[in-house]
Design brief:
Strand order of the largest sheet: 2-1-3-4
Number of helices: 8
Helix content: 25-40%
Structural class: alpha/beta
Radius of gyration: 17 Å
Order of helices and strands: EHEHEHEHEHEHEHEH
Largest sheet: 4 strands, parallel
Shape: globular
Number of strands: 8
Length: 247
Amino acid sequence: MRILLINPNTTASMTDKMAAAARAVAAPGVEIVAATAAYGPPSIEGYYDEVFAVPPLLEALGAERGRIDAAVIGCFDDTGVDAARTFTDVPVVGICQAAMQAAAVLANSFSVVTTLSRSVPALEHLVRRYGYAAHCRRVRAAEVPVLDLEDAASEAHERIRAEIARALEDDRAEAVVLGCAGMVDLARTLSAEFGVPVIEGVCAAVKLVEGLAALGLRTSRAGGYAPARAKPYRGEFARHSPDGDRG
């Protein structure tokens, strides 16, 4: 089985960190193929960055078309997940949905600790969309720029720890979801430190799509995830023109 892990930003060190975590939990015989966006934003921090991350994400998916059994989108905004599901019928999972699903199984309530306040509205929208409004106590921002997570000299980890402590005390959360792919290497340590499940979405998504692929399940082509209708796009997006027959 081959699972494609796509980092939709251009920071290769973050891809490497996600790939290492994914390979550590993948079942024997599962190959994790990691891809970094070839162009676009170095980090995805809000709606504007997200828009420009989708085309390179789809190109990375297209490069492996017909050679993978599932895909994971490694951005907690679940950037481009719906578009990717219309582009291929293999299971595609975003790390936000996977992490929240795991948290709802492991605890009666959870809070999300993300990076910057500008990301909170988008994540609150995903909480409602995925049906976890009754489970999620709050989406919190540690006020950590994403790329600070790649800088060992920053105060990022201390700020995340402080926000987790507030989530447990003030929100009375029973679990914490880490709201950024760049936090992938923190979950085990923080779970032990705080004594509650601290969940990151990369590994949760890998195990979810691994199971779906093993069951032989594929994305529905009825309705919203039907392949995009064939039509010519103009200008810079001409190369993204849908052929109406994605698989």
